Amino acid sequence: MGSGDMGCVKNLRRWRIDQGRVPEEALRLVGRGGVLVFPTETVYGLGGCPMDEKVIGRIFSIKDRPVGKPLPLVAAHLEAVRRAVAWWPSWAQALADAFWPGPLTLVLPAAPGFPRDLVSQQGTIALRISSHPVPKRLADACGGWIVATSANLSGEPPVRDPNKLSKTLLQRVDGLLDGGLLEKEVPSTVVELFPGEMPRWRCVRRGAVDPTGVARILGVEPAGSAD
């Protein structure tokens, strides 16, 4: 149970947004530790301020997400990306120039200070710059980043129609930024970059960006890939 038409969710704050304008009330809410559902350039996202461990715990609970599966971030701008990572080689910049803002998530060694539920056991963090104005505005309200995981219960498919969001999930969040039906149905592509003097990478998840485009930019085939 939990998937399907959202119907009428009691006491849900729902803002219908136009041209990516985020209401000040929603920005204040997320800045104070609220958890929101919001549109991205791919599917609807679920998130809140990443430096608040209570927010992180709520997101895991809202999604019924297994502990130990780190949450990805959307950064407001490249400077925020650089602050979040411990290593930023020229080939990461080449991918950023080619695909950002857009649906390519990069996995890189994390800078110190991030909550453990954002960092993998290998010490990496996953993040991107979205081409949709809403997550970028929310990230700005949270100091440069926002958690942006897909707005679905764990094990269920991502959602691009706000009317198909899980009622169970919506009963657990603080608000919905309704951007209408989204164009894409697939999440971002996730690519991990391995430290070293030469580009080495693997495709963690296939998505909206074709991995062959990543290989073309880096000039090397992946060391491994998703099934």
TrEMBL record:
| Compartments where found | Cytoplasm
What family is reported? Belongs to the SUA5 family.
Q: What is any one GO biological process for this UniProt entry?
A: regulation of translational fidelity
A cellular-component GO term for this protein = cytoplasm
EC numbers on record: 2.7.7.87
Q: Name one GO molecular function term.
A: L-threonylcarbamoyladenylate synthase
Q: Which InterPro entries match?
A: DHBP_synth_RibB-like_a/b_dom, Sua5-like_dom, TC-AMP_synthase_SUA5
The record lists the organism as Desulfacinum hydrothermale DSM 13146
Q: Which residues belong to any copy of the YrdC-like domain?
A: 20-209
Pfam families from the UniProt entry: Sua5_yciO_yrdC
Which PANTHER family does the UniProt record give? Answer: SUA5, THREONYLCARBAMOYL-AMP SYNTHASE
**What is the protein name for this chain?**
L-threonylcarbamoyladenylate synthase
